[in-house]
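Section 3.1: Structural characterization of target chains.
Under the original work plan, the team committed to producing a structural model for every single-chain target entering the pipeline before any wet-lab resources were allocated. The record below documents one such target. The sequence was received from the expression subgroup and is listed exactly as submitted; it comprises 227 residues.
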Amino acid sequence: MLEVAHISKSYKKKLVLSDASFSAADGKCVGILGTNGTGKSTLLSILAGILKPDSGSSLWEGVDLLKDAKFRTKIQGYVPQGIPLFPELSALDNLSLWYAQKKSDLEASLSSGILQRLGIKDFIRTPVAKMSGGMKKRLSIACAVACNPKILLLDEPSASLDIICKEQILDYLGEFCAKGGIAVLVTHDIQEIEFCDSTYMLSDGKLERYNYSGDVKALVRDLENSK
């Protein structure tokens, strides 16, 4: 069980997050919704240890992941909105940085594991600078799961991707959660929202449980009203 509690964050005098809390059981996917600029990426960056909160905790099996960086890097993977890759290096070279201590795992994953499922082998020698957006996103996810994380944080993982890439990513997330993993998605994508087991909406710094009914127009209306 992941228990995120009372996360608050301010930039100077602007309150971005106010007492944000949610929980996710093993095998579940949580979606974080909200309009642009509401603090969704800030929340994920805090959970990933990139930003420090003013207060709050992220507990997994009694350990506060916000305070124990060593443990956090072992059990949590993070896919930011940007592309955290070295553009001059190939897919293989980027992956080698993450699999430095376990080359055999890299080889096995390319042939029958997650890297094979994401189609990384098709562009394994391609420099990042020459990759499409979909290739870069799939490679970013592949790097994030090199440590076999129990928790996966993803910031708009399928934004601007084609249908095939979206399906590949959702298929992997389905497998990840089916094996007991916990996924937390910041998303604007309807397919991803429908994939989530529970959703929360962030507005004016406050994170509240949101029940998506499947009515897209109602969702749009609720998002507009949350501004």
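The first strand starts at residue 2 and ends at 11.
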